[in-house]
Amino acid sequence: MDDIVALHASHTHLFPGAQLHADREDPFLVLHTDVVILFSDHSRAEGAVHHSRDGFILQVDRYVTDAGTHLAAKSWSLMPVDGAFKIAGRLI
Predict the structure, then answer these.
(1) Bridge-based pairing state of the strands 55-60 and 84-91
(2) Distance of CA 35 to CAs 26, 67, Å?
(3) Which end of the chain is more exposed for a tag (fewer CB within 10 A), N or C?
(4) What is the pTM of this model?
(5) Helix, strand, coil shares of the chain as percentages rounded to 5?
(6) Cβ-defined contacts of 42-50 (< 8 Å, 24+)
(7) Inter-residue contact 46 to 61 (CB < 8 Å)
(8) pLDDT tens profile 23-38
(9) Nearest 5°: phi and psi at 60?
(10) What is the DSSP letter of 17?
(11) 3-state secondary structure of 50
(12) C-alpha count within 13 angstroms, C-beta hemisphere, residue 51
């Protein structure tokens, strides 16, 4: 499990502006990194981060929030900001 990076989300779901904090420095040194996103409501989702021209692409698998809401798989552009990562926008 050491190969998987944990990303701690600032909220219960992702949206442009939400922040993610990695469990280690320089978490995305390789082209593809498996991640687990830990949300503030204690739900979790699996996914991966890939390098892009402008930063990173975060692909999140479908998951269920602690309140029981089913969220579809989505991709997000991810930018490093002040020692964390910010969701810059949703990708189609």
Answers:
(1) unpaired
(2) 13, 22
(3) C
(4) 0.90
(5) 0, 55, 45
(6) 42/66, 43/12, 45/71, 49/5, 49/78
(7) yes
(8) 988 888 778 899 999 9
(9) -115, 125
(10) T
(11) strand
(12) 8
User: Checking DSSP bridges between strand 74-81 and strand 84-91, what pairing results, if any?
Assistant: antiparallel
Domain segments of the chain as ranges:
5-91
In our burial notation (b when 16+ CB lie closer than 10 A, e otherwise), range 12-39 reads: bbbeeebbbebeeeebbeeeebebbbbb
Which amino acid is present at 46? E
SS3 41: coil
Contact 60/76 with Cβ under 8 angstroms? Answer: yes
Rounding to the nearest 10 degrees, give the CA dihedral for residues 57, 29, 40, 76.
Answer: 0
